[in-house]
From TrEMBL:
This is Pyrroline-5-carboxylate reductase. It is found in: Cytoplasm. GO terms for biological process: L-proline biosynthetic process. Its EC number is 1.5.1.2. NADP(+) binds at L10, G11, A12, G13, S14, M15, A73, M74, K75, P76. Pfam families: F420_oxidored (PF03807), P5CR_dimer (PF14748). GO terms for cellular component: cytoplasm. The gene is proC. Belongs to the pyrroline-5-carboxylate reductase family. NCBIfam families: proC. PANTHER family: PYRROLINE-5-CARBOXYLATE REDUCTASE, PYRROLINE-5-CARBOXYLATE REDUCTASE 1. The keyword Cytoplasm applies. Keywords: Amino-acid biosynthesis, Cytoplasm, NADP, Oxidoreductase, Proline biosynthesis.
Length: 281
């Protein structure tokens, strides 16, 4: 499916690198098929080229006509200008994927040539090791074949979920921003372990294995997180004491609020860009 496909990333930040790393490591897409570009940081392009064996090409030297898949990976605030500049370069057969939080398919379709096939994508930074939870939503002109191409391509970097675009903001709050929540939790668990006498590296590995094991239990056991939690919580035991402390200190509410606030921010970004676009029009 991807033997002769050429892919270009517009934007060379951490998300672009995570996806490039995952795709390159998968073997399904060869590094020579991938190009990355940005507005001005040529040193960053050289760095990615050396590291992954891909092509780093300055924006003004790109030949869009040779590309099959165009992945928008710049900052959301730069999306409008990028889409406008693409308008005169794209052809109907080319597929546009956007990994930008808050950028709707309708926003892209309005600024690209009529009928352009677009897919909104929300991966996370676990793409780098092929373990992303990625959501995709097709635009109104996107064919089933191109949706399948997007799905297969993104399976190079982890699990892919096709969802309604109206669900993309909450998905962003859960999975797009989710790794950072777990890193934050791990930071605090690591500090607690060190204060209890464990060295930092040992504590870090213990925490990582514990989270990995819990995740595997969810994936492999046909039981809900609630049931699994109850099974490991003995009355008046150590786990019960820890959970009581979490509850008293707002642990559950904090997690829910983090997801909802990230989702709300995704909505706000979308609304801001739509308002800006309407003023320009």
């Amino acid at each position: 499916m991807f033997k002769d496909k050429k892919i270009v990333f517009l934007g060379a930040g951490s998300m672009a690198e995570a996806m490039i790393a995952g795709m390159s490591a998968s073997g399904i897409v060869k590094p020579a098929q991938i190009t990355v570009s940005n507005n001005s940081n040529t040193e960053r392009l050289k760095q990615l080229q050396r590291k992954y064996g891909i092509h780093g090409v300055p924006k003004e030297e790109l030949c869009y006509e040779n590309m099959d898949v165009v992945i928008l990976a710049m900052k959301p605030k730069d999306a409008e200008n990028a889409l406008i500049s693409l308008n005169h370069h794209l052809r109907p057969h080319q597929l546009v994927l956007s990994v930008l939080a808050g950028i709707s398919t309708s926003f892209m379709e309005d600024l690209l040539p009529y009928g352009q096939q677009v897919v909104r994508v929300m991966p996370n930074t676990s793409s780098m090791i092929g373990e992303s939870a990625t959501a995709i939503s097709p635009g109104k002109h996107t064919s089933q074949q191109n949706l399948s191409i997007a799905q297969r391509l993104l399976q190079c970097i982890g699990e892919v979920f096709i969802i309604n675009e109206s669900q993309m903001d909450i998905f962003t709050g859960i999975a797009g921003s989710g790794p950072a929540y777990f890193y934050y939790l791990m930071e605090h668990m690591e500090k607690a372990g060190q204060s209890g006498g464990l060295d930092q590296e040992t504590t870090r590995q213990i925490i990582a294995q514990t989270i990995l094991g819990a995740a595997r239990m969810i994936q492999e056991q046909e039981e809900s997180p609630e049931v699994l939690r109850e099974k490991v919580t003995s009355p008046n035991g150590t786990t019960a004491a820890g959970l009581e402390a979490l509850s008293k200190n707002g642990g559950g509410k904090a997690i829910s609020r983090a997801v909802k606030q990230a989702a709300q921010r995704s909505k706000e970004i979308s609304a801001q860009l739509e308002t800006k676009k309407l003023k320009v029009i």
